[in-house]
Amino acid sequence: KGPLEPWKCSDCLGDGTYRCLDGFGRPLFYTSCCRENHNTHPFHQVEQWTGTHFQESSLRLAGLTLHLGHDG
Question: What's the first-to-final CA gap in the chain, in angstroms?
């Protein structure tokens, strides 16, 4: 179900493009805020607002990269 009015990012008050399904209260995030907030939670599930509804997405599409191994 989509917003009746524009939803705002819980950090910067920009447009809430991503919704975290694993965070308390399903917070909304602007793309860069989503990426920054999930550096320590890279396996959270997110959805992206399409303009009419939320659609399953990934943190990779928000630009998050996960470095494995030494000197990541």
Answer: 39
- Phi, psi torsion values for 39, nearest 5 degrees: -55, -35
**Nearest Cα residue to 16 out of 69, 54, 45:** 54
pTM of the model: 0.77
Hey, what's the torsion of the CAs at 37, 62, 9, 47, to 10 degrees?
A: -110
User: Which tokens in the block code for residue 56?
Assistant: 């399953």
Beta strands in the chain (DSSP E): 18-20, 28-29, 46-49, 54-56
Q: 25-40 pLDDT, tens per residue? A: 888 899 999 999 999 9
